[in-house]
Amino acid sequence: MDSKYINHYNSFCLSLAALSKATTRDLQDSFVISGTVQKFTLTFDISWKVMKDIVVKYYKISDFASGSPRECLRTAASVSLISDDNWMNMLTLRNNLTHDYNGSLAESSVHTILDVYLPLFNAFKIKAAEFVNIE
């Protein structure tokens, strides 16, 4: 795999590791909540870029809007890189969190991020790792 993919993948893994630390923190603390949300957003954004890299390079699919997370998720699901509709829910949450100025959505979503979306990120990490060793 080329260095761009490996850099995206490594960044994804680092961001995911940082997000995972939130599981051992006080989720009542507003600073922890905001950090968790920020790491979630970053992890999500890097994950779909890793998906795009895999889809284009290994599945030779380039006829989708590669700058669109939604299209990338649909294409990644079509080749079984991801298997859950919760990825679209993740995208919606990520988009909504950018407009959560008072933190109420962050507070109500932090457990969903850690209980539902973190395992999906971990499953994708394992799947994406298969492509690191190809070639």
Tell me what you see in this structure.
This protein has five helices and no strands. It has helices spanning 3-20, 30-58, 69-78, 86-97, 104-132. By secondary structure, it is mainly α. The mean pLDDT is 94. The radius of gyration is 15 Å and the shape is globular. 32% of the residues are buried. It is 73% helix and 0% strand.
- Stretches with pLDDT under 50, minimum 5 residues: none
Q: Helix share of residues? A: over 70%
Task: Quote the average pLDDT.
Answer: 94
Q: What is the straight-line distance between the termini?
A: 7 Å
Order of helices and strands: HHHHH
Name the beta content range. Answer: under 5%
Q: How would you sum up the major sheet?
A: none
- DSSP strand tally: 0
| Tally of individual helices | 5
Radius of gyration (Å): 15 Å
Coarse morphology:
globular
Q: What structural class do you assign from the helix and strand content? A: mainly alpha
Task: Provide key terms for this protein.
single chain; mainly alpha; 0% strand; 135 residues
